Amino acid sequence: MHALLMFLALCAGTFIPLQMGMNALLTLHWSKSAPLSSLFSFFLGTVALGILILVSRTPLPSLTSSTAPWYAWIGGLLGAVIVTTLTYLAPRIGALAMMSLLICGQLLASIIFDHYGLVGYPLRPVTVMRIIGVVLLICGVYLINRY
């Protein structure tokens, strides 16, 4: 099961540069605005998720019964910032540079989130081997963007 989950994460990762390229095409050929293209992307995603919720008959929980911390509700805002930024960057720096820098930022944040168990992640302390792995990936990002 763990291998399947890792494979699903890998597959989902391939969608990010694809989505950003499509959003960049919308910006170039339609809206001339990264935020507007991102809004359309989010709208279409919202419609798709709404259909999935209806088809799967997922019950809507009460907002008043939520025990989620206040910051748990801003994920969509962060998503909008990420998608709009990447939509803007995609045609300017290219898919490989954009994704390598995105992954570098994700790794740096993730090692901190795991080490301290922040925002709901399980506590996974930093080890020397994890640091070496992140440093090697950052070296790869440097090589990708230097040459």
Automatic annotation (TrEMBL):
GO terms for cellular component: plasma membrane. It comes from Halodesulfovibrio spirochaetisodalis. The keyword Metal-binding does not apply. The chain crosses the membrane at residues 6-26, 38-58, 70-89, 96-113, 125-144. The keyword Protease does not apply. This is Membrane protein. Pfam families: DMT_YdcZ. It comes from the Bacteria. Keywords: Membrane, Transmembrane, Transmembrane helix. InterPro entries: YdcZ.
